[in-house]
User: What shape does this take?
Amino acid sequence: MKRASNFFNSLLIIIFLLSSCSDDNNIATDSPEVISNREVKIAVVLKKGDRQERVQRILDMARENITMARGGVVPSYEYYDEDTTALASLAVELASRQDIAAVVGCYDDKHTKTLAYECAKTDKTMFTFNTSQELARIFGQHGNYWGLSESDITQCEILLSLMADGGVQFDVALLACDNDYGQTFVDWFAFQAAEMGLNPVGLATYKDKSEIPDAYLKACANNPTLTLCVPNNAEEASIMYECTKMDNFSHFSVPFFTDRAYEPAMLKNEGLVGLNLVADPASGFGVVYKSRFGEAPIHGDAELYDAIMLTCLASRYDEVHNLDNLNYAVGTLLYYHSDSQGGWMSGNMKQAFETIAEGGVPEVSGAVGKLDFDPKNYTLITHSTYDFWMVYEGQFLSLNYMKRSEGEHSSSPIVSWEWNKTYQQQFDEHMSDIGYPALTGNKAVIIAGSGGWENYRFQADALEYYQMLRNSGYSDDDIILIMADDLAQNANNPEKGVVRRSVDGDNLYKNVVVDYRLEDITYNDLAVIFSGKPDVAHPEVLDSGAGDNVLFFWSSHGMPAGLALGDIDLVSGKQMARILQKMSDEQRFRKMMWIVEACFSGGVAKECEGIPGLLVMTAANANESSKADLWYAPYNVYLTNRFTSSIISRLYSDPATSLRDLYNVAFTGTLGSHVTIYNADNYGNLYQNTMREFLGK
Assistant: This one.
C-alpha cells in the first residue's frame, strides 16, 4: 500500500486555497469583465434528508468556483432525492432529455444500477461514486459510465492487508450485511485473505439487524483473531461492536470496520478502527472544506465536485471542437490528466478553460486527487485514497492514508479485480503414473444446475461443453444433458432459438438434445442416472463401463453446503461422493474428470477425495465465490463464467493439453478465486495425462 499523505508537495496549494476561499462569495466584484456563461444542466440524483445540506454545499461551491474560472460555462442543477423519487421513470426521462448534459448518482447500489441501465441505452454521460464491483463490471465498458471511486474490492484488499501487517498468519472471519454492498466482500474476502497469507476460518451474513448477534456467533465460531465487519449503516455497526463484548468466546476477536461505520454515532466506541474513502490529502480539498464548513468532507463530497467540474470542462471542450459527444470529451480530458494537484481550484480551472478555448487539451486533476482512469476505456478511476482511522477521545483519528498497490498483488493498476495470484498448487512432475485398463470409449454428463434468464451463463456454458463434445466425436447417446432449457424461447431473448456465450458467437442451441429438464430432477434422480440402470422415469442413464472415460461438467450456483440443483435443492459433497464412490466400486469408469463451475465448489470436491480414477477441478476453493464473465447489455445478463471461459479457450486451441497445463491456464485466467485440483494423488501424473483422452476418439 502506498501512503498518500505528502503534505509538503501540496503545502503551497493549501496555503493559496485557504487565503483565497473567502473570495468565493465575491464573484461579481472580482473583475469588471463581463462573461456570458452558457448553462450546463446536470441532474443530481442523491439522497436528501440528512445528506441534503452536504450535497447543496458542494453544488454551490462548484458553481462558485467554475463561475470564477470564467470559462464560458456555468453549471445548473436539478436535484432529486433517490429515496423518494419514482426512480425507474425518472431514469428513463433523464437519459432521454437533450437538455441534461450529465447525470450524477447514486448512493444506493440498486438505485445506481437503475440509473446506469437507462443512461447506457442513450449514452448519457453519468458520473457516480458508488463502489459496487458489479456496477463497474457491467457498465464500465459502455463509455458513458464514469466511476469516481474504486470498487469495494480495493477496500477489502486494504483492510486485509492491514490485518496481515507483520507477516503473522492470523485466523480471520467475515461478518457482512446481505445486500449488494456486502456481497463484494463476501465474493472477495476468502480469496484475498489467502493471497495475503491469512487463514479465513468463518463467514456469515445477515439480512436484518436483529440477526447480527447470531451471525456474529457463526462467523466467529472458530475463534478468529480478527474479524472484518461490513455493516450497512452505523446502527448495524454499533450492534456488531457490542457483539465483540459478549462473553461467548474464550478470546476476543478484533473487529475492523468498513467505510459505512464512519459516522458520528460510532464516536462513542473508543478504540474502534476502520477504513473510509477520502479525498487525497495532497489535493488540498479536505483542508479547504474543513476551513470553510467546520467539518471534514465525507465520501461523495469531493467526487460530486469533480463530476460537476469534469462535466463543465468537457462541455466546453465539446463545444469548441464541435464534437456533439460529451463522453468523448470527458475521455480526452482524462487521457491528459495531470500529475500535479489542485486542478479543482478556480485559478487552475481558469487556465484549463483558456487552454480549451485555444484548441488545446488541458491537464486536469480533481478534488479527489489525481484523476488516473482506466486507459482501456477511461471510465473507471484506478486509485482512490483511503483513511485508516481510529476512534480516539471521541474523535476520528487518521492513522494513515492508503492506496492500492500497483505491483504487490494487482496484476494491473487498472482494475482492482485483476490480481497476480501466488497461492498456486504444485504437482509432482516425476510422480509414477497409475496403471489403467485400455480406453474403449467416452461418455459425458453435463449439468446446468441453475435456470432462469438471470442465470443465462450457466446454461450457455453447459451448451458450449455439449457442442465441443459433439464436435469431438461424441454422439448424443454418449452425453447426458440436464438443464432448465428456458433460454432459447425465453420472453427476454431477442433472438428466439439462439443461445450464445459471446456476442458474435455461434448458436449453441443448434441441434441440442436435452435429456432431462431441471425441474424434473432431484438428487435421487441423479443417483439413478449415474447408476447406469434405466427405468421408466429415467430412460437415459450413464451406461459407462470399466474402459470408459467420463467427462462430468457441472455449472450452477453454489453454497458452502453444496451445489444448486434447481431453485430449491442443494446436492452436498457427501451425496456426490456416495454416487461416485459407488461407480468406482462397480468399475463403471476408467477415469473421470469432473469440472465444477460454482461458488464454494471446493467444499464438494473435498468430500470426493480418495476415489480412485477421479480428478476434480473447481472454479473456487471451499471458501470462495466464482466469478461471472462478459456482461452483455442487450440481454442484461452475463453470457459466461470466467473459469469456464479459460478452460474452453484452452481446449479449443489445444485439445491435447496436459492436465497440469490446463490447471495452470485456468488458475491464471480465472480472476477472484483460486482454481483448485482435488484427488490428484488418486488419479495420476498431471504432466503426463492429457485432455485428449476425453476429447478424442
